[in-house]
Amino acid sequence: MAKIGYIMTAPGYEDFSADSGWMEDFGCVEIVREELLSADKARTMWDSLMGRVQFGDTVVIPKLSNALRGARQLVFFLEFCRVKNIRLVSIRDRIDSGNELFPGTQTSDVLTAIALLPQEANAIRKSSHHISRIKKHIESISDKAMGRAERNKRIVNMYLEGFSIDEIFKESGFSSRSSVFRILNEANVQLDRGRWKGPLGPRKKKED
Fold first, then answer.
1. What is the C-alpha separation between 120 and 116, in angstroms, rounded?
2. Which residues of 169-197 are buried (b: 16+ CB within 10 A; e: fewer)?
């Protein structure tokens, strides 16, 4: 009869050290850590744990909402625990189905934890989705910036290697040659062939 801990480190969860330390002190032989960065990600580590726990084992979680997605999953999980005689310990809900820990916990406390499960699980999903969208946006911006930097570097190198403006323009993908000159000017490249010599200065306004 083994004691096994499970912790899902979703965005906003900052109690891993405290909860894992509690589990170690309680005698957990294994602590499964699952990182959930997206609300849509399957909890494969949790599913794997449920597939290998044995009759009479103890499953320790930080909180019901940390391991379970909602009330429906809670119902199936509790039935699973009943059939396999699994002892459930939820640290922060102060629930122990073995009736040994948390002597001060009352029935009303357990019912409150169950009632709050959908709300807390939904908050975790929203936070995960928000963080995931922000990271994707940042990665997209970073990729674009890297692409621009590489293109600008290639334009400068081509000019220094002797390529003509027309050749550079064809390779750049720009719709206007002025963009090529702008990049060379920003890089302080000395223009030494064609109509222009030295860096381009600011354009003069046409007089009416």
1. 6
2. beebebeeeeebbebbbeeebebeeeeee
Q: Per the domain annotation, does 208 fall within a domain?
A: no
Cβ contact 65:120 at 8 Å: yes
Whole-structure pTM over 0.90, yes or no?
A: no
- Read off the pLDDT of residues 135-171 as tens digits, 9 standing for 90 and up: 555 555 555 665 777 888 888 888 887 788 888 888 8
What pLDDT, on a 0 to 100 scale, did the predictor assign at position 198?
47
Last residue of a domain, one of 64, 92, 126: 126
Bridge partners (DSSP) listed for residue 3: 58
Q: What is the largest CA-CA distance in the chain?
A: 92
Q: Residue 59: give the domain boundaries.
A: 3-126
> Domain count of the chain?
2
Beta strand residue intervals within 84-191, DSSP E: 87-90, 95-96
Residue 30 pLDDT class (50, 70, 90 cuts): very high
Report in angstroms the alpha-carbon separations of 24 from 21, 89, 168, 201. Answer: 5, 13, 63, 68
